[in-house]
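pasting for ref
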Amino acid sequence: MAVPQEGSPFSIPSELFVSNQLYIGQELSHEEFLHLKDLQEQHLCRMQAMTYLARREHTAFELKVKLQRKSFSPHCIQNVLDVLKEENLLSEMRYARQYIESRQRKNPEGRALMAQRLASKGVEREAAERALDELYSEEQIIDYVQRAYALAVKKMGKDKARMALSRKGFSSYEVRLGLESLM
């Protein structure tokens, strides 16, 4: 515990205690105390971020919002996000790939709609474009269109299935490409 002369005490994780070569009963200057409090906040912020990342991939934007809700300071959050990116524990590209693959398994959509979805999730534009380029090859587009068409035919019949593909974000070129091989 760090106990100030005025204000509230706070707990110090043992690794911070050891790494800062502190000892029990040590007197700290005001600057040392504030530095230790900052380190403690960064440690807690990182632990919370790691808890979120252990559940699933996140964008930096999503993590930032969640950590703000936990009342971490903007400076602390940004430092933690920067370190997590450097350590490749937070990756926009990895998030974008997993998001696209998950959506395509359940309900295939065109590149345009997927780009909008990624933008709404806060994925950085460059990472989104790279993931889209990787997961929207001509062969994959054909597969996505055919699967989306089969689902649309089951739901609404052949007459309306083609129109449903455009609402799913497939361009007319993609629709033609995907449906040519079916006929």
